[in-house]
Structures are given as structure tokens and as C-alpha cells.
Amino acid sequence: MPNRWVIILTSLFLTGCLGEYLPESIADLYETPPFTWSYELFESTITEDGYTRTIFRTNDVKYWTLEGSTIWTVWGEAEAVFTSRTVRMSKSSGFSTGGYGIVFCHGEHEIEGYKKHAMLVVMINNNRQYIIGKAVGGVFTDFGWWRTTPHLDSGGAPNLVTVTYDEEAEKFRLIINGHEVDQFSDNDFPVLRSGRNGYIAVITPFDNFPFTGINISFLEDKR
User: For the whole model, what pTM was predicted?
Assistant: First the structure.
């Protein structure tokens, strides 16, 4: 049985710069830990070679709970059918098992009479582990719990994470530092094949706010 836990989509919806996505609704509120949309904690700049570097950093104790918390963001308009995405990511501070990674195929779907967020998620941590899953209306279902791979570099080193979709086979592939490590499918309603892209970061109860905080870098070609 896949592990499941309930998470909150909070109303931290601040007005942002042009091109940032502002959700139209939030999912039903459940019990902790919180699962929070934000744009202000993900700061982006353009590098000299045209890539977009996004930094997630915080040591704000309002995000630090006994149950942990997850913060995510998405941007822009909905993409066509997902084909491929590559992000170089690293975590220079924060508890080593706290996950961070990418959101893709995000959208809002009519489910049981309510409009709810749904997204696919791939995360890694600094202990050479990765996890794949899907969040729908505040409930995350993993496609297999945290798995260890020697193809991930540990200790905060940069890792190149690629996700591709084979439309004919109806399978996603996860490639880490040039090595295919997993394949997965999404066949449960709502089936996700397109949508917005974004990033995600987990704050664990074992982080040390406000003294140490979290610093994560994402580097991606968005052109």
C-alpha cells in the first residue's frame, strides 16, 4: 500500500509579478502538516547564459512545525502535453533528509464537486534518495517510498534531474545525472499529462530554525 498523508493548502496568496501563477481556489482544509503555495520564497534571476536560477531560502519559524511543512510554487500558463524537463538542483543548508524537487503537470480539477489542485512531484534529498508521487486536493500519494540510488551525489552537491514522458508507452521516466533510475505511470483520476511547472521544498521538524534555515538552488532553461 502506498503511504499517504494529509496536507493543507493554505491561503498564502500574495500578488506577484507578471507571469506568476495565482491559484483560484484552495483545497479543503485537513489536519497538519501544511502544504503551502508561495511565490515570494522562490526568488529567480537570469544567468549570463540565459538559464533561470531560482533560490528557495527561509529560516522563518512560521513555516517550522512539529509535523513539518511543504512549500511549493508554479508559474505561467498551462503547458501542452508534458514531454521533458531538466533541472539542476542542490541544497546547501537544511536537514539532509528534507526533500526538494520539481512539480509538473499541475492544474486545478473538478473533483467531487470541488475545484482541487493536482500535481506530479519528484523530490530528492541529500542522502542519495528520491521519491515520486502525486498530490491531489491536499492528499499526497507516493508511487513508492523513498528509494536510494548511487547515481545521486550526496552532501548538497548539484544533481541533474530529468523527467521525460513517452506518450506511446504512457510512461514517465526519471533520469538522474544521465542514468535512468525509474519509470512511473499516472493512471488514477485526475490523470495528469499536462499543466504548469514548479518547484517544491520540505521543511522538516529536524531543521533548526531560525538559526540554520534552508537554502536550495534550482537551475533550469525556461526559454
Answer: 0.85
DSSP letters spanning 108-136: EEEETTEEEEEEEEEEE-TTSEEEEEEEE
Q: Tell me the pLDDT tens digit for each residue of 181-199.
A: 999 999 999 999 999 999 9
Measured between alpha carbons, how far is 109 from 90 in angstroms, rounded to an integer?
A: 32
**CATH assignment of the domain containing 15:** 2.60.120.560
Instruction: Map residue 61 onto helix, strand or coil.
Output: helix
- Say how far residue 210 (Cα) sits from the centre of its chain: 23
Domain that holds residue 177: 4-220
Best CA proximity match to 104, nearest among 40, 172, 183, 12? 172
How many independent structural domains does the chain possess? 1
Please list, in sequence order, all residues whose beta carbon lies within 8 angstroms of the beta carbon of residue 200, skipping any fewer than 6 positions away. Answer: 70, 71, 72, 73, 99, 100, 101, 102, 103, 121, 123
Instruction: Indicate the average pLDDT of the chain.
Output: 86
Cell matching residue 179: 542514468
